[in-house]
Amino acid sequence: MKRYILSVLLTLCTLGGFAQSSMTDTQVMEFVQKEHKRGTSQAQIVTKLMQSGVDISQIRRVREAYEKMQKGNAAFGATTEKTAADRSRTNNGQLHPGKSRRQIADATLDSYNTEEQEVNRYSDGRVSANRSWTNTYDENDGEYLKMQEEMNAWMPQDTATMYNNLLKQLSRNRKKVWGRDIFNNKSLSFEPNMNMALPRNYRIGPGDAVFIDVYGASQKSYQTTVAPDGIITLDGFGPIQVSGLTVAQANSRIREKLGRRYSSSSIRLSVGQTHTIMVNVVGEVKTPGTYTLSAFATVFNALYMAGGIGELGTLRNIKVYRGGSLISTVDVYDFLRRGHLTGNVRLADNDVIVVGPYEMLAQVSGKVKRPMFYEMKRGESLGTLISYAGGFAGDAYTRSVRVRRKTGRQYSIFNVNEFDMRSFRVSDEDSVSVDSVIPRYENMVEVKGAVFRPGMYEVGGRINSVRGLIEAADGLAEAAFSPHAVLHRKKADRTLEVISVDVDGILTGRVADIPLQNEDVLFIPTKTEVQEQQTITIHGEVLYPGVYKYADNESLEDFILQAGGLKQTASTVRVDVSRRISNPQALAPDSVIARTYSFSLRDGFVIDGAPGFVLEPFDEVYVRKSPGTTVQQNVSIEGEVVFAGNYTLTSRRMRLSDIFKAAGGGTELAYIKGARLERRPTPSERLRMEAAYKMQQEQQRKNMIDLAVKTKNATIVQAVQENDKKTQEKFQVPDSYPVGIELDKAIANPGGDEDVLLREGDRIIVPQYNGTVKINGAVMYPNTVGYVEGKSVAYYIDQAGGFASDAKKSNTYILYMNGMLAKVGHNAKVRPGCEIIVPTKIQSRMSLAETLSVGSSAASIAAVIATIANLLK
């Protein structure tokens, strides 16, 4: 229940209010609890509260008070027992207009028996008793939309999104008036200090806690509370009238009464908890009504309790009446600007605070520190308005401001200069615009590029020419291209003019200096900016091949050394240098496009080639790999051999039999006929595999499109495209592929056709003997059975229950342990460890999914077989 109430209050706390509330804070709490017990939804509760005029400030107060009540603090009638010795004061004012502290303490939450009683209590005399609650609210109302946005946690996300743009627009359209939200800040409540010394003019009243101390020859303490009729009663002394007396006057009266008995003692009266006062806040406030406040409360505290100033309320002319007479006028701007609390008087019982409508509002926009609306008094000047806005911003144009004013049926524009701002009077709804300065310069020249201190400079004095500007920038940088610079100048119509500058001639005196004008920009390029960046490149067997910046007089030996030197694999008998041919004056292309120079090296020095050879820009050096240098190439053999592991190829013509012999031959468990070879694909083989895969995909696509044309089914094309995309993403060239070998024949006939040549990365696996045969595919019961020498394929098919009805018997094939394939009927024999595979017929009438699946599988198998066949050629 507590969580539910808090959730409703938190939801409502996010809303801004416009209507005046017809319910007190206590009634809001009672209503939420009552409706929750009746099963009313949260949205309906919120709607009803809004219809009754409950706004954000009131809900915030209710939520804070409810949270305090849950923690045991004094709120909503919960009282705190004070010991006799506790003389500290608390703010005994309340947040609830229209009820006294005692009434709230006696309020019960379950006192409503009928709908009529409920409506009457909530009306509080301000809403007709026959008003009926509804379950809906105007969906175009900004208040309701704002509530819905803040309730995203309780409403569908799509509904909240639907209102989002409209809510932002409503928020932008609301006027932001300086100072209006000061009484809506929960951190600035203006609560009085309850434990300060009592003011000299404080008058004791009913409800004050009075402490009387007797000390000296006698010791005695009395604690009592001033009764509603203004008297206190002390044991043995009877009633004493103290209401309306100041503390000093009450002290004198108590000494007079008690002095006869305690003539040799001192007597002192003090006030602990003070009484409360009833204050009426009316007019343009968020929640007008009668408030019970502390006796120390001020005007600001009462305005905070009333929820702050409303949309139409004045901040500059708040009036306080006591006994029918005006006792104070409050201008909140005095407090905001200077911290003055003039007019913020301490309130008394039955005081009336009247907040009338504002007199004038003026808007300031543009280059001021606080652009917003301001409430103005009649007769205040434009200068005062700008001072309210915090003054001009740093980049404001202060010589003149623009004022738009409503004059009868139309608007007028006034341009007020800086000398008339103090005399120009502001009117209601004036709109003041402060422009920024023009983004131009009056005395600026700029230098960019190859100088030591590029940037803007003040033109005039010694900086009045190109030479003076360069000297002010600490001269030209070393990389400056001084024969030609560019001066950009703006003509009278702000179009650009370009002037060529011979900086070198000006600095040496050969050319006349050029005078500068405002906003001239001088650009001095670097040498690299006026010509192509010059580089040289080295390829091949050096530690750091790449592109290097060209340097004058660099030799071939220097460049090789700069690239880290030669690798061990580099050839020293041939190093080539290619040089581009450049002829800027040619009229036709030449058949010769480059020249090549060859050199021999010894100990890093050129011993054969063009003498005194020096590299030129864009030369490319090629250090070849020596044909007599080969890095070690390793193969591995594993499984049932005596010495399994890696072996280095000692010859380019090493074969299967050589490695098998080097490994000590097979063990007694080795099955030589089942040995297989796995090989890494070379770059060219990878390209062929990718090409074969693409061909397979293209053929599959063509077949499916043909099928779509025949069946007039366009969805097949879409399905093929989606399937093609998925298979392309999944395809990767394998790290290795199987090579069918016959190791037994290679051992029997070393160097023969079966004795395959090995290469880097080959992996030979010699398995154990496997005395089984596996039957798979389109058979009744795929099975693995023991190998029986001499038995045919038909025997093993029978062991799997025979062919299935969709078996394609003529395409049955055998996959042997060594990676070889054989089609049944072509002298294929069953061997230990082999697998008999029976393909499935492709039906003429198949579903789309089956067609795609079988087509993809068949094409994939065909592509793999074709690729392996190509690799074995």
UniProtKB/TrEMBL annotation:
Record's keyword annotation contains Phosphoprotein: no
GO MF term list: polysaccharide transmembrane transporter activity
SUPFAM superfamilies assigned to the protein according to its UniProt record, in alphabetical order: Nqo1 middle domain-like
Top-level taxon in the UniProt lineage: Bacteria
Soluble ligand binding domain ranges (all copies): 278-327, 362-412, 536-580, 635-680, 773-811
Signal peptide range in chain numbering: 1-19
Keywords, ordered alphabetically: Signal
Pfam families in the record: Poly_export (PF02563), SLBB (PF10531)
Spans annotated as Disordered: 73-103
Domain Polysaccharide export protein N-terminal: 199-264
PANTHER family per UniProt: POLYSACCHARIDE EXPORT PROTEIN GFCE-RELATED (PTHR33619:SF3)
Name of the protein in its database record: Polysialic acid transport protein kpsD
Organism: Prevotella denticola
